[in-house]
Amino acid sequence: MSRRLTLGRVLEPLLLSASVTVPSHYPSKAEYVHQLIDTYYLPVFLWAEKQLRSPCLVLGLSCVQGGGKTTMSSYLETLFRATGRTCATLSLDDVYLPHADQLKVAASNPHNPLLEHRGNPGTHDLNLLMSLIDDASAGRDVLVPRYDKSAYNGRGDRFPKDKWVRYPGPVDVLLIEGWCLGFEASPTDPPGHLRPVNQALREFDRVHAALSALIVVHVDDARWVYTYVGFNPVGCIHTQHNIMTTGGENKPRLR
After folding, report:
1. For the whole model, what pTM was predicted?
2. Where are the domains of the chain?
3. Side-chain-side CA neighbours of residue 74 (13 Å)
4. DSSP per residue, 90-114
5. How far apart are CA 92 and CA 46, in angstroms?
6. Could you tell me which residues come within 8 angstroms of residue 173 by beta carbon, excluding any fewer than 6 positions away?
7. Which residues lie closer than 8 Å to 13 by C-beta, 6 or more apart?
8. Does residue 235 carry a pLDDT above 50?
9. Could you report the per-residue pLDDT of 35-91, keeping only the tens digit for each?
C-alpha cells in the first residue's frame, strides 16, 4: 500500500463521520471525501511535512473565520501523529487576554466596537504566545492554554492552568492557527477606531518572525464568514515559497 493511500485512510473515517455538505453532482459522500483528501488535506500535509526542521517546526495556519482552519489543524495534528511526530496545536483564541485584562482594554478604548470584546489584534496575550514558541523551539514542554468562551455570559475568560494541555518536549511541530496570522499593519495609521487595532497588529511582527512557515487559506467569497461555521475546504493556500491553489473541485497546483 502506498504511503499516500495509508495517510488517506487515516483521515477517511474522520471525514465520513463529520458533517460535510456534499455538492449535488457527487454521487456519494464517500466520493466527495476522497476528493477532499486527495486534493486538499494530503497536499497540505505533505508540504508541511517537507518543512520539518530541528528542533521544532513552528507552523502558522491562517484563514478567515468559518474557513476550516480548526478542522485543518486537527487533521494535520492527526497525520503528524500517525507518522510518529508530536504536534502541539493551539489557536490564537487560546491566548486571548483574561477577562479582567479584556475589560481594561475596552475601558481604555471607549466607544470602539473593535476592542469592546475579544477577537481583534489588541485582545491577545502575545507575550504568552511568544513564550510558547520559545519553549517549543528550545525543546521544552509546551503548556498550551485554553480559553472558555462561555464565561462571563459569553465575554470569555482563560481557563485555569489545571485545564491547560501539556505536550511533553521536545515537540516536532508547534501548529498555531488564527484568522489574522500573517496580516501586516498599514504603514500609515488609519483614522478613528481602526488606529489602535492597526497599532496592535504591529505587535504581531515578532510572532510572524518566529514562524518557520505559514499556510494561508484564501476563500473565494468573504461572505462565507457569515455563512459557514467550521468546515469549508475550498480556497487558495499560499506559502512563503509557492502557492497551492484549490478551487472546489479543481486539483491543487504548485506554481
Report:
1. 0.85
2. 3-254
3. 10
4. EEGGGGBPPHHHHHHHHHHSTT-TT
5. 24
6. 48, 52, 56, 57, 59, 80, 85, 86, 87, 88
7. none
8. no
9. 999 999 999 999 999 999 999 999 999 988 777 888 999 999 999 999 999 999 999
Residue 221 grid coordinates: 467569497
With beta carbons less than 8 A apart as the criterion, state whether 159 and 146 touch: yes
Torsional sign, CA 139, 46, 177, 183: positive
Query: pLDDT value at position 155?
Result: 94
What share of residues in the chain are helix, strand, coil (percent, to 5)? 40, 20, 45
> String of b and e for 126-144 (b: at least 16 CB within 10 Å)?
beebeebbebbbeebebeb
- Set of cell numbers at residue 34: 476522497
CATH number for domain 3-254, candidates 3.50.30.20, 3.40.50.300, 3.30.300.30, 3.30.499.10: 3.40.50.300
Q: Quick one: cell of 41?
A: 488535506
> Euclidean distance between the first and final Cα of the chain, in Å?
29
